[in-house]
Amino acid sequence: MTVTPANIEDPTLQQCLEIAERTRQLCHRIVTTFESSNTSGDPDAQQNLIERSRGLKQLNALLQQLKCLHRTAVMSARDAKDVTRDARQEVDRLHLQLQNLYYEQRHLRGEITACIDFPHKYTSLPLISEEEFLAAHPEHAEMDAHNLMIARIRNEKVVREDLEKQRKELLATKQQLINENKKRKDDLANLDEQLKRFIESSRPIQTTFQKDY
Questions:
Q1: What are 175-211's pLDDT values in tens digits?
Q2: What is d(CA 200, CA 102) in angstroms, rounded to the nearest whole number?
Q3: pTM reported for the whole predicted model
Q4: Domain segments of the chain as ranges
Q5: What is the C-alpha separation between 117 and 146, in angstroms, rounded?
Q6: For residues 179 and 186, is the Cβ–Cβ distance under 8 A?
Q7: 135-170 burial string, b = 16+ CB within 10 Å, else e?
Q8: How many other CB atoms are there within 10 angstroms of residue 13's CB atom?
Q9: Among candidates 135, 119, 126, which has minimal Cα distance to 157?
Q10: How far is 78 from 91, CA to CA, in rounded Å?
């Protein structure tokens, strides 16, 4: 009875093992006939010779089958190696691609963390509190945190632009008042100078009146 290992599933290899087992058993029988033919006085010597000749023919046939199966097994092994090589290359390619994706993911996570931790300028803006903003602009109450922050920054921009406009207007008014004050000072200085000249020019008249009286 031929026993095939349980871990061999390839039909060609199973057939090869079966024929190898049959060949082994046949060789054992041929050896037995050789030993029997060497025994003197064996009445079945002629029959053993016939059996041995028949067994040798069967052995040659089995050996030819083994050669064919061996060649087939070698070709199958080569094909399996080619398939395995291609599969290994595909696995290596996919593994390399997975590694690249892993490195890219780690890089992107680092970039995301850097962006989250980056000290953005808007975080240092002296914005009014969220409660005050929503109290003044209740239409933004349903916004998410991101859009709410954008609305607060835009509101801060409008308020600052309005304050800047008022500042420029006040500066213009201040400059106008400075110019007016300077003009008045100049007018007063001119008037004072004219008054001095008038007083100087009226001295002779005063002297004359003083003589007369």
A1: 999 999 998 888 888 887 888 877 777 777 667 666 6
A2: 101
A3: 0.39
A4: 11-117, 121-212
A5: 16
A6: no
A7: eeeeebeeeeeeebeebbeebbeeeeeeeeeeeeee
A8: 17
A9: 126
A10: 19
